[in-house]
Queue: 4 jobs
Job 1
Amino acid sequence: MGPAAGAVSGKGEVDLIRTIDKYIGKTAILGILLVWSSLTVLMMMFSILGELRDTTGNYGASDVFWFVLQTGPRMAYQIFPVSALMGSLLGIGSLASANELVAFRVSGASRLRLAIAGMAGTLIITVPVMAIGEWVAPDAEQQARAFRSSQLVGQVIIGGSSGMWIRDGNNIVNIRRPLLTADRGQQSINFQEIEIHHFGGFAELQKITRAESAFFDGDQWTLEGVSIVEISQAEVTPLKLERTPWVSGVKPELVEAAVTRPVYLSIRALWDQLNYLQSNGLDDRIYLSAFWEKVLYPLAIIALVMAGMPFVFGSSRQHNHGFRLFIGMTLGGVFMLINSAAQNLATAYSLPVALSTAMPSAVLMVIAVTILRRSA
């Protein structure tokens, strides 16, 4: 009877620990969702106020609201790591204020086990957030930038997976790869794979011009690596040129403003751009940094949440929500600064980007786990 009673007791203890894990995870999820939604709405409100300063006759208040609404998924994705930290601090911290964490520890759950339970709840939300960052935010951001530039300048621009489409008089221009490059700290836009459809009238296609690249020298556009197909009723005439002037009303500042920055692209788009840049011997540092930042996004979230846990277990009832919010904002802000500095150093000095991007998160997580284990 003794061994049987021990087995029952052991099973009951396991069930109790699992129940505690679910409770901690659920509390973390609710706290994160509350903070995440609040911060996203706050960011959108600030964005609306900033955009309202740039309103013109073509870009009115309704356009501002539509633009900010389209950029909402990107803002939600960007603010989630800090929201996860602050939300877990608030949610699990409320259990500490009610002495529930003390009761859980008496039941046999270590601080590290409770922290891992909170992190597991965070990862449940991280999966759909990453889906937003991969499939929703990039396309919405591209459409939003194209829409805003079109309204401000009065020139039709359409963004999409096939690059940027621009109405240029009777011509339709497709810039398939608008690339961001860096030279001595200065960033500029480099246009690759351009295709121009020249129309003479309604649906009368006269010529198709394809170019490997295009640049603006301050006065006019020049196309390089040009292939032209002239179309007439009698024949189709091909022509190849090393370079040729491009008389166009497309304004460089218009196109640059509409280009989606690498940090807003999906992992798939970044991988495609990296393959293109590497195969053509072009500078890929900015895109490589953005790629690894996206890939290691979950690691940054795990590190931030784990780093916040010692403050939860070390707090008492006198540490209110305001204190935990302060800890969350301070820790999140410092981490983001260090993380950004590590990426910039890797880009500037050609260091291993993956290692530089992962290092701050890895060090922060090791420190947090060590503190939790020693205080268990």
Job 2
Amino acid sequence: MIEHRRTALVTGANRGLGLETCRQLGRLGLRIVLTARSSRSGQTAARRLEDEGLDIRFEPLDLASPASVAACAERLASDGVDVDVLVNNGAVYPSGTALTIPISEFAETIAINVTGALHAIQLFVPAMIERGYGRVVNVSSGYGAFAEGLEGPAAYSISKAALNALTVKAAEAVDGRRVKINAVCPGWVRTRMGGPSAGLNVEQGAGTIVWLATLPSNGPHGGFFRERTRIPW
């Protein structure tokens, strides 16, 4: 259990890894802000976790819309909710190569997978610095790793490589003793994105996310991890 009650905000949390991350963090005693673009599916997911006895608040949040991200932060601030843990999980996975993907679809992928994460970091991390505690987990992918060949669809791979770069630069901007920012490759997980043939279930996939979200003061900072082991960018 975590010594002090913290609040975690998870993006893209209405299903799959995001939902399971909320569940596992909630079971550890954190208050959870579950966010999703769809209010209907987000509220349904939040009720599921409430029925399990967890402390859940749903907030609509569309990562493609800066106004939506800012409005979410404003509502939380007005209600006195401090975000101690930020899990940037929300993402899209379009198909296509660099020669075929429509520019509009590529731009939307960057807006959601990268710019949305950056906006959330800019809105929530400064207050973490002021309070002297924070954890940020950027849910990336091996498809975004140069060391693993940038496999996968072009827009997704490029966006995750950019998210990794964002992790490095954001980590440089904070004191890693108090606010820790890391990226994670959860592995190939049986979600709607990962498909039914994936080797890991959502409980296993969320494991390293939750570990990074609850790191002790001597935990790692500015790294990229899979199965709790640092991997090359």
Job 3
Amino acid sequence: MSFNVGLSGLYAANKSLDVTGNNIANVATTGFKSSRAEFADQYAQSIRGTSGATSTGSGVTTAAVSQQFTQGSLNTGTGRSLDLAINGNGFFMVSNNGDKLYTRAGAFHTDSNGYVIDESGNNLQGYSLDSSGNLATGVLSSLRIDSSNLSPKSTSTITMASNLNSSATVPTVTTFDPSDSTSYNTTWSTPIYDSQGNEHSLSQYFAKTDTNTWTMYSLIDGRSISTPSSTTADATKLTFDSSGNLITTGTGAPDVTDSPNISIGTDGIFTVNNWVPAAATTVGSTTTWASNGASGNATGMKLNMLATTQTNSAAGAISNPQDGYATGQISAMNVDATGNIFASYTNGQSKVIGQVSLTNFANVQGLAPAGGTNWRETYASGTPVTGAPESGTLGSLTGQALEESNVDLTSELVNLIKAQSNYQANAKTISTESTIMQTTIQMT
């Protein structure tokens, strides 16, 4: 019996050495989770299924090798936009030709087709954009980075906050001329874009005509809005109340009848209509302006000037954002805590192009190791629950970071010493039993 007890102890010590050695070997493996050998004593059973009152036990057995899914330290600032670390619960789901695997190792990059893959070529799963450009949440797919150019967008809305100086005097020159600064009080320009992404300039000149009234003259690229061959500006009257606020409806509202290309809606917002984007062509000393082949927004450009005021302070545009832009190429990417992949473009635009998903299990100890720092679902792990990071019990993501191995090297080195001592002690049990057997044999 003692031989078997000692032998089981050797097996257990050897298993402990294997587990500890594997932990130490993977101390630098990204996303690795350490294991722990768990042992149980064993007793011989009687015929009736009970142990005797004086049973001494028949040794030890390996009950389980369990993995420790504790959080590893985050190595931040890796400099790679698709390096991802999970902070909290969850696993990345990757697909190996349809075989679903789960991992905490977040070293991802794109392949030649733009798909986001790990070092083994497995496809990272998440939520892609639908045909309308919105995230198709709830529909998992292999994430792909669309590296094509961002198509240009013609300007459809300009929102302007500005002030006109109430103490300004009426210009001495009553006939407007953009080249004569004495024919107006102030001016400012807003960049706008046509359907091909060409940049143009909407210039507005403001001339005071009387107390609380102004005329706004509008030109695009110094040309008439609808007729590039002309320099005739659209003139629109602006009227302010006694508090300096723009009057947009009712008596005293802006008179737009003398401005064929600028109208005002019931909401008090102007619309620039009939714009013909133009370009100049110079032959010798002659410069001509004509359509450049592009178009403006089909429904016109909304010009929101509701925040324009007339007060006794310096005149000027406070802000004038517009929503058009030129063609752009991806210049950078980043992933936020909720898994959204943001692409930044050379035209100053940015947008979400996908979202990384996370998956969790009721019993992570039930996952089966699949190699390559991956695990597989089993019956014991329970059904996978997949969602966006920071939803439910799922953790968050940290971009340009990797989760390091959770192996505690100091503890593992101590475990080596303990396993070695256990091995020596059990070997001594067998050696002692052998000596006793030899003594017994010599007595006979």
Job 4
Amino acid sequence: MVVEEYRARVQPYLDRLVGPFLTWTPDRLSYLAFGLTALAALASALARWWGPLLFLPVAVLVFFGGLFDVLDGEVARRTKRTSRRGDLVDHVLDRYADVVLLLGLAVSSYADPVLALLALVSLLLTSYMGTQAQALGVGRLYRGLLSRADRLLILALAAFLEFDWSLPWPWAPTAPWSRFHPAGLTFTVLDVALLYFVVAGQRTAIGRARRIYRSLTPPDGAGR
């Protein structure tokens, strides 16, 4: 699942959505995106005591946090307010958003803390490889199995399913795969999403590192 590949298709919708925010500063949108994600992290943590119903607001907050994270760049480009400071603010807040969101899931008791930690490592490595390419003059890398848009969409969907399947809906199976027990292990929907983050994140990070390495010209006479 690579959302970035479909960006051209959704661009007309982004063009409509960005209109009301053209008077905003890009940094203001970046802080709003981070604030919504931080609230999602808090709601995730509180689910430990208040139950899975909180995952509905988590899903909504993660989705809109991701949406405003996209709109800040759109506003910056449309209003010609792109800057290195703005780029720094955006990337710093994105990384903090990743950290607090996965910490919230780790506390929630609906996600394995070890998986949350491994997923966080994979996400940070994925982002690092993208910015490292930019630092080396290769250009910012967004491609791979796990872009930021991918993981926010997956987390929003996983949180919604965790909420939805906690209710006695007719379509909710009596033993949903959000609580299956292979080999004595218990997995939730969020665990499955985090496991995907671990695998896809490592593959994306390694793939980006190889792409960067191949694009760099080796010095004359170098043995590698």
